[in-house]
Amino acid sequence: MKILAIGDLVGENSIEKLKKDLRNIQEAEDIDFTVVNAENVSGGMGITTKSFNQLKNMNIDVITMGNHTWGKKDIFSFIDDDKLIRPANYSKGIPGHGYTIVEKGEKKIAVINLIGRTDMGVLSDNPFTCMDNILKNIDADVIIVDFHAEATAEKLAMSYYLDGKISVIFGTHTHIQTADEKVLPKGTGYITDIGMTGPINSVIGMDIDASLKRFVTSLPERYKLAGGECMLNGVVFELDDVTNKAKKVYRIRT
Hints:
By secondary structure, the protein is α/β, with parallel strands linked by helices. The chain has helices at 13-29, 49-56, 127-137, 152-162, 208-217, and strands at residues 2-6, 8-9, 33-37, 62-64, 99-104, 107-115, 142-148, 168-172, 182-183, 189-191, 196-199, 230-231, 233-239, 246-253. It is built from five helices and 14 strands. The longest helix has 17 residues, at 13-29.
């Protein structure tokens, strides 16, 4: 089995890039299952009904979110859709679900969304103990985790905590693809961050001039989306069909 994880969609132009490249990647890489992080897809923060419906019409199995889950109020009208998950360690009682299980062929595939607690500016429960509780209550052949977190150390710690318990864990949120893809000692595929699908000439998807003004002057400057050509960042995880453990992990950029 081959799993494709595509990094944080930033802005509506990222949807056009995905429309252009997704099918070609899936066919060229013989992809069986696709996960896309879309927490920044609408205006750079959150997801609208229009964007969600566009993504649902593509060959995407699960859409994950992050710290900007509630950035667009539209989400409350479709938060319970089976294809969409938000961080599982958000406070109890909020709408939506933190994981889903999809049957693909003879496999039950669980996808879990978590959010980190280091420098995220979001109140959330402990992602480590949250994962313990989820693993006790799910029955799946393949388990995939999108860990939406800022700190590389937190992501790496989580990967070793879950090594051998799940098939795949990938980081999202920083919008910068890392070069540390690997198979961990007990068979879990890992990368610290899968990167961004959004404007190439930008500061993590945002307009360069506006971003520079914030850093140079320390004055509050409203972020705005960058324009121009987009890139697509993603990672492919190849699993053993018998053990469901990772055999190979490699990056994609178009």
